[in-house]
Amino acid sequence: MTREQWTPVSGARRAERVDGLPFRPPVLDAVRSVAGAAALTGGLLGLVSLAGWVSDTDVLKKVLPGTAVSMKPNAAVALVALGFSLFVIAHGAVRTRTLAAARAAAALAAVLGVLTLVEYATGAGLGIDELLFQDSTAAVGTGAPGRMAPNTAAALMLAGVAALCAGASRIPAWASQIPGLAVGALGMLRLYGSAYAVPELERFGAYTGMALHTALALVLLGTALFLARPDEGPAGLLWNAGTTGALGRWLFVTVVVVPPLLGWGVLAGEDAGVFGVRLGTALLVCGHVAVFTAVIFTTLAVGRRVEAAHARLEWQVRQNELLQAFMDHTPAVVFIKDLDGRFLSVNTTFEQILGLRREQVLGRRDQEVMPADAGLRARPADLTLLAEGKPVQREEVLALPGGAREFLSTLFPLTDTSGRPYAVCGVVTDITDRVAAQREAQRSHRRFRALLESAPDATLITDGDGTVVMANAQVTRLFGRSPDDLVGTDVVHLAPAPRRRRHGALLGTYLRLRDPRPVVLDRDLYGLRDDGSEFPVEVSVSSLESEQETLVFLTVRDITERRRAETERAERYEQQRRIAHTLQHSLMGQPPRLAYLPSAHRYLASVQDPGVGGDWFDVIPLDKRRTGVVVGDVMGRGLEAAAVMGQLRAASHALARTGATPGVLMTGLDAFVSDLADQLVTCVYLVIDQEANEVTLCSAGHLPVIALPPGGPACRLGAPVGVPLGVNDSSGMALPFEDVSHPLPPGSTLALYTDGLVERPGTDIEAQIDVLAHTLAHTLGHEPKDGQADPETLDRAADRLLGTLVPDTASHDDDVTLLLLGLPKTAERGS
């Protein structure tokens, strides 16, 4: 029987298809195990009874208590033989001797059954009934002593013949399975007779009846016969994984289970006086079983044929469609020819290349459809292929209607199951573009090599592991080694030994980046010459990802001269920075620290200049009760702004010493700035009168002063709007500078500052001033209210304000000046 193996798409387990039906190997193995267990159990029942005859023990002869009929010796021997035979067959014995013993055992059972039936048919005794033992149980039944019941003999004969058929794979499975069902049915008749209390089913005529455990053994052996080959015949209809199997199992279980239960119910009703004779009910049940079984297998047989035919037809159609679709969607030319050279099938590309329809090609030979030169070469190539039986591949140029093209032709034979060729298949690929691309790649490689050699710096190309695969001639000048010597070596070996680990880590880190971009590295990188000397290098790194590998391009340049120039430039810059720093401090001076007016100040120069700028502040003692304070900002940066700042600081200090009011001082400074070319200055000057508890101020375009009275909140000290110093002269209009006085309670704190503290790109300067006022109030609001702010407290507040408004002091681009003044609680002060 033909079988084929297939693997389902949805799982890794394999299944078998027999006659078009799918089977699951685990299920088949389980069914065969059940068949073996049933055969073994049936044989054991016979063996137990045989042991009773040997030991002359009635209990073992009858096995089941309360039974009147014992199992005859010949029946016990036949059952043991059948149990052994079917157990071997169910487990698929492969040893010749074991299989021969199983067949001999089956034949013994069949012979015993046949001889007993001959005795019944002829009425003669053949001397086999008491051949082994004298029968002392004849009194309990009728018939010859030691002779098994006729239905038992018939069942054993059928079982023996069926077992012989089951052990021969060439005999159809139904030849053993249908007799197996009959054997089981004969046993079931006896069991039904016992279950329904119908003696007529236990014996037929005036003969010895079938023992109850004999019937049970026959049912088990019949089951083993039916299940011994579960993937074939009627059993295959039950146990396949398709629709027919599922339907058959449900129907079979229904037939086996439901009718006996119905019969039992009917008999129960008859016992209650509701129904008629028991015999009619028992025969009715048996008839139902027989009819239902016939219906099941008839239905399954029809379903199997329909399903198998449908599956074969669908598979064949699908295979043809898939083959043609595969050929039509293949960009290469595909054709199939018979052994005479006639085309059997071509694909769409074949039609397009030759400009012919498929109907014009099928059935014709090469010379009739292909160009003349190609047609003449095609037939000898086919004959050579058929003679050698091996695929042939060759490149050729064909003159087509669209021009000459280069093709790669592959011919191979199509063979049947015996290995004989029945057709020739050809796959022709147009490689014109590929050949042209290869030639272009060779030209590109030559151009790339020339470009690599023309690079002024040493260039190395490595793989993803850092192994050099190519280098230009400049490596000889830089490292003292030839390019050929470097190929195949690790690129980190071009670095000094103590630095190789770091250099390799840098390269590995670069390669592990998800999207590595070209990068230039020149910090602490050194090369190693062939003579052992070290030199600083700059390395440009880039990578190229391809399907096969990753290539890394390293361009190495000697930067010894650059490092020397950078060192000299750094030394000059440091010298200039020290000069500028000294100049800045000399111009700004150090404001006096007044015991009666604690203060804290901070100054940060712009990072764009060497520590100099145009911001300044000054605290000027005027008399015993008054102190002048000035903060200014010269627009611009650098030394020029610092020089203007120094002049204005000196001028403002001198004017303040004359006792000038804030407005007069601003007017004098404005005249001074107007004499300077293209200068613009913002400034605020205030006079603190500690006896009058007030402050008088004048602003020339400067940011408002923040005052924090005891208990808060912080507020801005209003002042008339004034233009920056230097504007009056340029505009031709003299706008006056007005001053204003504000009460200033003892214990207040003043904050003066320049725009570098609150002005940032993308921020609102008014909002920043509010942040300054809020931070000042929050910082000093927790101080004791009964004393003035001491210098340490003001220092902490200055740090807090600077850290809040200028968080990154290393990158600010403007001068920053902050001055905090703390007024004492009382108006007393020293002289």
Write the topology of this structure:
Layout: E1 3-6, E2 15-18, E3 21-23, H1 25-55, H2 58-62, H3 73-90, H4 96-122, H5 150-166, H6 174-195, H7 212-227, H8 233-239, H9 243-271, H10 278-328, E4 333-337, E5 343-346, H11 348-354, H12 358-361, H13 366-369, H14 372-388, E6 392-400, E7 403-415, E8 421-430, H15 432-454, E9 458-462, E10 468-471, H16 474-479, H17 483-486, H18 500-511, E11 519-521, E12 526-528, E13 534-545, E14 550-558, H19 560-588, E15 599-604, E16 615-621, E17 626-634, H20 638-657, H21 662-674, E18 681-689, E19 694-700, E20 705-708, E21 715-717, H22 727-731, E22 740-743, E23 749-753, H23 765-780, H24 791-805, E24 816-822
Antiparallel strand pairs: 1-2, 2-3, 4-5, 4-8, 6-7, 7-8, 9-10, 9-14, 11-13, 12-13, 13-14, 15-24, 16-17, 17-18, 18-19, 19-22, 20-21, 20-23, 23-24
What features would you describe in this structure?
By secondary structure, this protein is an alpha+beta fold. Helices cover about 50% and strands about 20% of the residues. It contains 24 helices and 24 strands. Strands 9, 10, 11, 12, 13 and 14 form a six-stranded antiparallel β-sheet that branches. Strands 5-4-8-7-6 form a five-stranded antiparallel β-sheet, with helices on both faces. A five-stranded antiparallel β-sheet has the order 15-24-23-20-21, covered by helices on one side. Helix 5 (about 150-165) runs antiparallel to helix 6 and helix 8 (about 235-240) packs across helix 9. The longest helix has about 50 residues, at about 280-330. It starts with a strand and ends in a 9-residue tail after the last strand.
